[in-house]
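Async update (no meeting this week)

Hi team, since we skipped the sync, here's where things stand on the single-chain job. The sequence we agreed to prioritize is pasted below, unchanged from the tracker. I ran it this morning and attached the output directly underneath so nobody has to dig for it. Comments welcome in thread, and please keep replies under the output.
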Amino acid sequence: MTYRLATYESENGPRAGVIVGDAVFDAAELTGQPTYTSVLRILEDWERAKDILAGAARKTGAGWKLAETHLRAPILWPPAIYCAGANYRDHAAEMARKLNRPQDPDPKLNGGRPWHFIKTSRSVADPGATVAATHYCKNLDWEIELAAVIGQPGKNIRVEDALRHVAGYTIANDISARDLGRRAEAAAGSPFSFDWTGQKCFDGACPLGPWIVPADDIPDPQNLSLKLWVNDVIKQDSNTGEMIFTLAEQIAQLSIGMTLYPGDVILTGTPAGVGQGRGEFLKAGDVVKLEIERIGTLSNRIA
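Output:
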């Protein structure tokens, strides 16, 4: 791993940082680029920035200790957060069993396309932050997801070109208020009964981090192990190879009719082992830990 891109809390507020080993450096100072004060500014210059950062990371001196540095979510705040729905085969099978119904045919084999919903930018939570949501809902659920960060803008992107638009990868927890996914006042089966905002967009609904690993360090995003624990008990243990639609296919679909911009984040779906499938949910005091191979670990406490 060459370096990691992060946001750290300085005396003057959040700034872009570069992590090399166990040391943290201010990105603007390390690179000599005065505009690199935020990760979003760096991503907007990604074609140049990726080489500048790689070169600077080879010439580092003494930095701050990572363990003593307050990391924020790597992007404050993403222009858009796109979240893939029902995109893991093992998760689809899990939910079919939970609902006691036949599993739907594989949408990819039947000519289907990836579909996404949106989380608000301000639903992002920092690594280590406490997510206060148990007062908001009764059925608070966890969902580990590989998150791709866009570095190169594009529209109508071809599948074979899609990964060239990715600057790097991080970890996301698509925390969901399962009991708020439907509007009680709407008739069952009504097209107006769904409430994606209430279920997915509350404060703290998207813990993100702890940093961004450059895409060049992860040559195959479709072969990464994902694990999630609640209070040190493993709940999700899968691999991104279980995705129905690959990240490249998701990027291509999203870019039809709209432009993807630097700093946009794509959550690629969650595997089996969510609380809804198990019939158990988060409660105050729980600690959720997520780990994705080649990226790192993200933890948050529930309040």
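Quick observations from my side:
The first strand starts at residue 4 and ends at 10.
The radius of gyration is 19 Å.
Reply here if anything looks off.
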